[in-house]
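pls design
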């Protein structure tokens, strides 16, 4: 798994998989009546953001806003 501020590896997370995951989350957001979703991650709790984006922070916190 890649960590830190680096480019996304399309070999590890192909565009089709990324697009499908985002569509799945957006569908759940729509069903819940949410216009946006803010995800928080850090190096010890990276699972949610890592699954969605392939990103794992190395030293600090990060946030992802999905609209």
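designed seq:
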């Amino acid at each position: 798994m890649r960590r830190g501020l680096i480019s996304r590896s399309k070999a590890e997370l192909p565009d089709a998989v990324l697009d499908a995951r985002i569509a799945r989350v957006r569908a759940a957001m729509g069903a819940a009546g949410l216009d946006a979703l803010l995800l928080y991650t850090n190096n010890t709790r990276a699972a949610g953001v890592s699954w969605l984006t392939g990103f794992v922070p190395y030293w600090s916190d990060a946030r992802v806003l999905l609209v």
